[in-house]
Amino acid sequence: MSTPNLAPRLSLQHLRTAVQFNAHLAALQYANRSISVRYASGKSIGDNRARDQPKKKKKQRNDFKHYDLKDAQQFSLCDAIRYVKAFEVGRAPTSSKYDLAVKLRTIKNGPVVRNRLRLPHAVDTSIRICVICPPDSKHAEAAKKAGASVVGEDTVFDAVKEGRIEFDRCICHQDSVAKMNKAGLGRILGPRGLMPSAKFGTVVKDVGTSVKGLIGGSEYRERDGVVRMAIGQLGFTPEDLQANIKTFMGEIKKDIGLLSDRVQKDIHEVVLSSTNAPGFSLNGEFRSPESPPTRDLAIL
């Protein structure tokens, strides 16, 4: 005798409902899974969300970055001269110049070191100087005797407006300032750094003395935390170069002292280079035990 099938019979409608329920349940489980969905490009949904978030701005430094000099190779002055001259072999003594770069520990966008000095051994004596003063006055005569290349008022104004700027420095007597300003030379000479100004000591009372100070003098200005200046000619002896460097460093220290109430500045590194040679960091010594005799370094 056969046993009857007591299991309940499911209709086709019941089966369809069960399948739809299971599919819906699987979809919910899939949406709640922690596994991220990736596109064909390899990026996930989380990547896109991170991309859409506003990026955090990188904190900007307010000072210039400097490297630790403990591990840096530094040279005495004589050793640096020796290596610099190796890069300048075959060049005329007056065609190349030694350059000194003084790197400062200082903040950005702060007061800068800027001045003019006369080195013990002049680097460039071919500078052309313009003096703005009455042409027939005693000041004009004193300027010409001191070595000024261009002297006058209206003739200088007309030449500048025509684009004939045949000078490297310009000073103005204090009695001619009003006439110079009326001529409107600021928009022409200003961008070139030639406009006379009392702030920078180029509006003077004694033009003769000022011209003598400019001939053979040098100007320097801090840019991006570094003060650079031509410090000597290739034909200078080590002693001549040492005297110029001492004078230059002394003036920079004075300038830093004058700014101490406004900003903190310190000398970080001094680098000697030349027109065609790389820079050599100086350790403050004149010569080392391995340095050649100074008389040999004076020979090109």
Features:
300 residues; alpha/beta; 4-stranded parallel sheet; 10 strands
Tell me what you see in this structure.
The protein has 300 residues and is an alpha/beta fold. The protein is 33% helix and 18% strand. It contains ten helices and ten strands. Strand 7 and strand 8 form a beta hairpin. 24% of the residues are buried.
Tell me the layout of helices and strands.
Elements: H1 12-31, H2 45-52, H3 77-87, E1 97-105, E2 114-118, E3 129-132, H4 138-146, E4 150-152, H5 154-161, E5 169-173, H6 177-183, H7 186-189, E6 203-204, H8 207-214, E7 217-223, E8 226-233, H9 238-258, E9 266-274, E10 280-281, H10 294-297
Parallel strand pairs: 3-4, 3-5, 5-6
Antiparallel strand pairs: 1-8, 1-9, 2-7, 7-8, 9-10
